[in-house]
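Hi, does anyone understand the following?
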Amino acid sequence: MLSVQQVKAKKKSSRRNLWLEKLLAIIAVANLVLVGFDFSYIPWRDFYFTEAPTIVRYYDEVKGIQPHRETQRYLDKVEQLETQIEQAGLQSSEVESVLQQLRQLSNEMIEDNPFDVAGKTGSLAKIKRLMRLHVASFNNRTIEASAHEAFTLFWSQLYLSQVGWEKEINFFNTQLRPLIATNYYRDIGETGQFIDKFWLIDLPFIAIFGMDFLIRAFFISLRNRLSLLEAILRRWYDVFLLLPVFQWLRVIPVTIRLYQSQLLNLEPVRSQINHDFVANFAEEITEVVGIRVIDQLQEAITNGSISRRLLRSKSSGYIDINNTNEISAIASRIVKLSVHQVMPKIQPDVEALIHYNLQTILNQSPVYKQLQNLPGVSNLPKQLASEIAKSAYSAIVSVVDDPQSAKIWQQLTNNFSKNLEGELQKEHNRKEIQTLLVDLLEEIKINYVQNIAGGGMEEILEESEQIRRIKRNK
């Protein structure tokens, strides 16, 4: 029995372990969040680029992302154009030189499609469509004008002077620049895959989880006297925290750790899953087992093994472990219990039943009615009932206990069994009984075993749950 100090020390250790579990669970959640962000970064980079440019600036290095040289040169040239217009004016030769370069870069962008590497060809299609729509109304042009013509017109002194260069540069910066700026180039490593340095961020977490995994396995091995491999299998789900691939599977150990550290209450979910699983599984396994047992009984009846067993056939191949006919022994034991233990206790009831029947019969006799007034005659039915019951009981006891009576009874039993066996071994009798038994079992299988689903499996599980709750509350 534990002392008070040992109990306190155990509780203190338990609280300390719970805090450690919570800390590790929080670390696992943080790692899972990072994994989720890493998975989402490439598909959602445009969103992060707009809403969190600082994060993009640093995380691009993790993913080996750099600004694409062609599209970045294009944006730099537009900034140079703005500077030249402000310094020398729109009609200057310096501005015309920059516009000429922009027209050339636009044609190269349309032809070379620098957005393809990043999988952003759709962005280029949107850029071309916006430019064609924007310049369509100038000089009675239509939407059917090509993207080359649209960009050539847009980057011309005539167009910018007539429409207003500030307005057009503002259109470019608000509508087209964000689409061009999100384009990028991603380095490819020696393996032929895109460079991804997320493993450097993930490595410290893997180290923490690896040490935790080994320590847990070691203590499980000591506490339960298991091999290290068996102890590792006890914590199989933690392996997902150590794998550098299929990192989305870490949601399994993270969820389990949150539940075990009491940071997340999954009891309702667990109970419902267990309920559904047990309900379906119990229903199906009970039905399968029931049908299987009945099928085996039908097979045993059909091939005659049941009849050979009941008739103690020597050629039945049945293995007898004690050289005892259990059916005969059970029947003999029941008879002795009935005679020596049960019948003495129910003898008054037997006497009352016999007395009632005798009284009923005698009351119907005119002679008895005339003699009933004589002394002692009124008690005659009761005395007769008592004598009959005692005589019958004595006769049964003598049959059971008297060696000679037992010998005669045994001879009667043997002759009965022999003659019954002989009749049952006749082909027509055996086949008829076998057919009836097989049909009976088939009816049981159809009417009971296969109707378990409608027999209240839900009610049984609910009753079981109530019993468990009562035990927990005690």
